[in-house]
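Narrative of activities, Objective 1.

The group set out to show that a structural description can be obtained from nothing but a protein's sequence at a throughput compatible with the screening campaign. Below is one input-output pair from the validation batch, recorded exactly as produced.
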Amino acid sequence: MSNEHLTTVRKWYPRALTSIDTVNRLLDTIEKHLDLKPHQLMHADSMCCDDVNAIQYPPRAYEMLGPFHLGGLNGFPFAGITGMNAFAHHVPENGAVIIFYAPHIGITKDGTIGEISRIGQSGNSACCGAAKGALNKLLNNEIIDGNISSLDFQMNTIEQIFLHNKYRITAAKNQIFEATEVMYEAIDRRMEVLVKETSYPCKYVILAGAIFINGDKEMGSFCQYKRFDYINLETKERKSLLKEYYE
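Output recorded for this entry:
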C-alpha cells in the first residue's frame, strides 16, 4: 500500500490509518494502559457481512480470541441481546471484551467515495451496497415509514434509520458520506444499549467505534476511529483512550 493511497483516503477521513496500523495501535494501547495481552481479549465485531471485509480484515486481529460476529448489513448489531450475552460469556475472567463496530464505505484509488474495484471485476461496484441501495430509495421517496418485513429485515432497518434522518442526508454535500455517519451514530447508540443490558464476567469492556474504509483491490483497507473507551467493571469508571491511541 503506497502513501498515495493513504493520502487519497485522508481527503475524506483525515485521521485514517491502514487497518494493519489500526490494529497494532489498538493492541499496543490496550497493553500499555490496561496491561492486557491479545490472548486476554475476547473480540467481537459488528461489521457488514460484505465479503470484502473478510478479505481485508487485518491478520493481527486474530491474535485476540474470536471474533464473535454481531453485525449484519452495514455493521448494525443485528445479533442483539442474545448475541451479546453469548459473546460475553466466552471472555477470560482476568481479561476484557473488546467490541469493534463500524459501518463501512468504499474509496477508489482516484478518490471516488461509495464504491470500489473488486477482485475479478472490470468495473466498480457499490460499497456499502446496502447503504447505497437504501440511499437511492430515500432519494426516490420509496421508503415507507415503519415498513419492516421479515423477508428483508436488515435492509428495511437501514432504510428506516435513513428515513428518520432524511433532511440531514439529502441536504449533505456528499450524501453517501453523510449516510455512513448517520449509520455509525445509529450503531453507536445501539451498542451502548446492548452493553448496558449485558453482564460481563471480566475486568473491562472496551468499545472501539470507527468507520471502516475499503479501498480498491490493490489498496487494502483503512480505518478511522471515532470512539475508544474502556469501562472498568469493578469501579464503573469509563475513560476514553482515543487521545492516547492517536499519539
